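One record is set out below.
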Amino acid sequence: MLLIWIAKLWVSFVMENIEKIREQFPITRNRVFMNHAAQSPLPKVVADAVCKCIDEFSNFGHTSIEWHNGGKPFFAKLIGAKTEEIALVENTSIGMNIAANVLRYPQGAKIVTTDLEYPSVVYPWLRKRLGVEVLLIV
């Protein structure tokens, strides 16, 4: 029930702020895009930060952009964890594999996903030794 409430709240926020969100993606002025995780247009704030970083490294050999430990403190606060409990990995597929294999599952555990999910999100849960049942919502 809580997840449904959170999803409704998120949709409400997005719909109320859709124009502000679209402004962050200049491509939406003349195209429609669907982010599929492998590649997509960057939000303007991200593209600007990347350009600034590249420019400063090219001209000065360093950047003024504060790294803040890779954003770990912010993310830890967001999910109620300690900074040292946050790991940065190469991509989502590796992260999902790590998570799937370090969690301890109670007997009868079920993983619910959809047939529309990106395959690398589903594959880690299909390992027999995890002892979980994977339910696909079609």
Q: What stands out?
A: Residues 72-138 form one domain. The mean pLDDT is 85. The radius of gyration is 19 Å.
